[in-house]
């Protein structure tokens, strides 16, 4: 389950760093 949490965190980080135009 921890792996899924880390993936979600990475996805959120990328989305925040590169927001869709």
Automatic annotation (TrEMBL):
It comes from the Eukaryota. This is Uncharacterized protein. It comes from Rhizophora mucronata (Asiatic mangrove).
């Amino acid at each position: 389950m921890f792996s899924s949490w880390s993936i979600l965190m990475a996805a959120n980080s990328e989305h925040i760093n590169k927001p869709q135009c």
